[in-house]
Amino acid sequence: MANNSLFLKSGFIKVPLQNGVGRFIGQLQRVTIKFCKSHGNSRGVREFIENDLVDFAKQNPGVVVYVKPRRHRGPSIVGEYLNGERNWKPAGNLSREEIFKWINLMTVQNGETEAFRYRKHIRTKMPSIQGVWTPFTHRNLPNNLITYPNEELGEVLHKEQTATERLLEIAMQQNLESDTSKEQQKD
């Protein structure tokens, strides 16, 4: 364990509202954009509101967006999440693109603002440092992409007739025999 993680809060991953079971539930509930209509450091926020806010609202129908003009105060963005957390970001002198990036970042977060050391339910005295093993781990890449059977490798498989194919063949022979016998009876 690294020394810098000794002083972090630790715990298990919590999945709010069984997120991911059945469908994804976005954790951002509400965004409040506060800005001044005339102050210079709110220019990026005003440009975002004029150009990108409607598109953002259409792409994220589960997020309520409030626009709150305030006189002679610095701009800010406040995100409120389903778990009750609030994430506040001062937006003074940010460009329109930076505002868009911060709001998109809020949409994918879950409201946890503190650094958090995740713990596992499984413990072992000898953890693996080699990574996850798969059947394709030590094979050459060209061999992973070949479709079998391959004539170049000399691994042509002799295709035998399957039981289903054999039964279909017998049924077709019986149908032919019954058709010929019916024709003979008519004559």
TrEMBL record:
One of its GO terms (molecular function) is structural constituent of ribosome. Residues 37-110 form the Ribosomal protein/NADH dehydrogenase domain. It comes from Clunio marinus. It is found in: Mitochondrion. This is Large ribosomal subunit protein mL43. Keywords: Mitochondrion, Ribonucleoprotein, Ribosomal protein. InterPro entries: Ribosomal_mL43 (IPR039927), Ribosomal_mL43/mS25/NADH_DH (IPR007741), Thioredoxin-like_sf (IPR036249). Belongs to the mitochondrion-specific ribosomal protein mL43 family. It comes from the Eukaryota. PANTHER family: 39S RIBOSOMAL PROTEIN L43, LARGE RIBOSOMAL SUBUNIT PROTEIN ML43. One of its GO terms (cellular component) is mitochondrial large ribosomal subunit. The keyword Nucleus does not apply. Its main location: mitochondrion. Pfam families: L51_S25_CI-B8. GO terms for biological process: mitochondrial translation.
